[in-house]
From TrEMBL:
Keywords: Repeat, WD repeat. Pfam families: WD40. InterPro entries: WD40/YVTN_repeat-like_dom_sf (IPR015943), WD40_repeat_CS (IPR019775), WD40_repeat_dom_sf (IPR036322), WD40_rpt (IPR001680). Signal peptide: none annotated. The keyword Ubl conjugation does not apply. It comes from the Eukaryota. SMART domains: WD40 (SM00320). This is WD repeat-containing protein. It comes from Reticulomyxa filosa. PANTHER family: TRANSCRIPTION INITIATION FACTOR TFIID (PTHR19879), TRANSCRIPTION INITIATION FACTOR TFIID SUBUNIT 5 (PTHR19879:SF9).
Length: 131
C-alpha cells in the first residue's frame, strides 16, 4: 500500500495483520487484540509473503516473526506486482515493474532467473499460465 504497510486479511473474521515498514525498521502489528492466529501457508516456502515497492525492490518476509528474509534488487522501476509460483514452480517469484519488464526469481538462491522484455509500458500485474 502507499502508506508503507502490508496487510494480511483473515477472510473469515475480517481481522487483518499489518506489517508497517519504516526504512529498514519493520513492526508487525496484529489488530486482533494482540492474539496470534494460525495464518496458514501463504506461498513460497511456507509462512512467507512477498512485497513489491516503489524503491524497485521485492522483499520476502517471514509473517510469524515479521523479519525480512531476502531482497531482490534487479528492477529499475516501481515493482507493481509479485506472484509466488504454482506447485511445479514452487520456489519462484514472478514480478512486474514500471521498468516494462517481467522477471522470474529463484527464492532459494535469491537470484534472477529470467528477464522477459517486450512490454512498451509499465507492467501492472503478473500471473503464471499453466500449459
Amino acid at each position: 500500500s502507499g502508506d508503507n504497510t502490508i496487510c494480511l486479511w483473515d477472510v473469515e473474521t475480517s481481522n487483518h495483520y499489518m506489517f508497517s515498514m519504516d526504512m529498514k525498521l519493520v513492526l508487525f502489528v496484529n489488530t486482533n487484540n494482540n492474539k496470534m492466529n494460525n495464518i496458514g501457508v501463504i506461498g513460497g516456502n511456507g509462512y512467507t509473503i512477498c512485497s513489491g515497492s516503489c524503491a524497485s525492490t521485492i522483499r520476502m518476509w517471514d509473517i510469524e516473526t515479521a523479519k525480512q528474509l531476502n531482497v531482490f534488487k534487479e528492477h529499475t522501476g516501481f515493482v507493481n506486482s509479485v506472484k509466488y509460483g504454482p506447485n511445479e514452480l514452487l520456489n519462484t517469484i514472478l514480478s512486474g515493474s514500471n521498468d516494462s519488464s517481467v522477471r522470474l526469481w529463484d527464492i532459494r538462491s535469491g537470484q534472477q532467473i529470467q528477464v522477459f522484455n517486450g512490454h512498451l509500458f509499465i507492467v501492472s500485474s503478473v500471473e503464471y499460465s499453466p500449459f
